[in-house]
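Checklist before submission:
- one chain only
- standard amino acids only
- sequence pasted in full

Submission:
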Amino acid sequence: MSKQKAIVIGAGIVGLSTAYYLNKRGVEVEIIDAGDGTNNCSYGNAGYISPSHIIPLASPGIISQGLRWMLNPESPFYIKPRLDADLIRWGLLFKKASNAARVNAAAPVLKDLMVKSQQLYEEIIQDESIDAGYRKPGLLMICKTKEALHHEVELVEMAQKLGLDAEVLTREATEKLEPNVEYDMVGSVYFGCDAWMTPHNFMKLFQERIKESGIKIHFKNELQRIVKIGNKITEIITNEGSYSADHYVITAGSWSPLLAKQIGLRIPLQGGKGYSFMLPSPPKMTTLPSILVEGRLATTPMQDGLRFAGTMELTGLNHKVNQNRVNGIIKSIKEFMPDFRAVDFSEVKTWAGLRPCTPDGLPYIGATKNSRNLYIGTGHAMLGWTLGPVTGQLLAEQITEGQMSISSPLIGVDRYA
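Returned file contents:
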């Protein structure tokens, strides 16, 4: 029997993980990517591997909060008003999913996926000897106001019911965990279940290990056409040539719907632009990563500096930097962190990435009825880095065994078909 072959479209953490686990199962794999391997969300994110993030993007109250933010040019959230049928459909589905029942159903599914993915990261790091600064002493949710802290308490209760390590801390208790940096706060929530690393260093080394295992990665290969005969894909054509395989996997992040649409598969998804920048020599280095709750801003101590990441901007498929959003990030830093008020941020290099956001906040993982040899792994929103390995493993299981060890209609590819 000849060896099975798979082509993975997209070389972010999901694509690399899919190729990695397929290769371990004896499948020949090639990866196709339109970029150079560094221009995706897997490089500039906050680096969190966070089982605590059990609340999907679509949640109660997010609509009204989002409308208020829309009026503030420096707010953490923005949708560019435009007549776009896909955006309008996405918005209607998002509104429908933003309810307590949906959140309660989604939380256990996300928790199982994230806990498993964290375990897989630890295995990859050990098995492949990857030093990317992985640590697991937890994450702080820093609250400036009592109202924000009260809201986070509700999240703690849900997390604890799901078996996650979570607790509410006073200002004094927070300062004991984070002695290096002063925060303007009333208290915090501590998630001891969370970990973090330096994502760009992990990606560089993981990519090297994957190549060493015999997997071919073709960069600067832009997909131009998917050839489908009957219910089966027979080849893909790029600017560099054609490729054929037994199985095809789309892990192209926010560009996945454009590729899928070529063969009549509609997967509602919008690219949610996020920004980040690094301070190589900050005035103080944090001990733990933290999320500044009211500012919706993440801070992460990394191997080469302190990274700040935030905002959610639905403005189409582009990487243009909106300086108003960057100013909003800087404003939040100075409001929350007195030690940083004298920092000159004028020279920071801002990175922008498009996080693939589904209407209900859960990813698309698995097979599709559209084509019997096509598989999808996208739509992870802010959880792409956390969920990369588990998505790759589940897709490898689906391809080689016909089923996934963690399965739910809530992550089905065809749930909006």
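Reviewer check: The longest strand covers residues 270-279.
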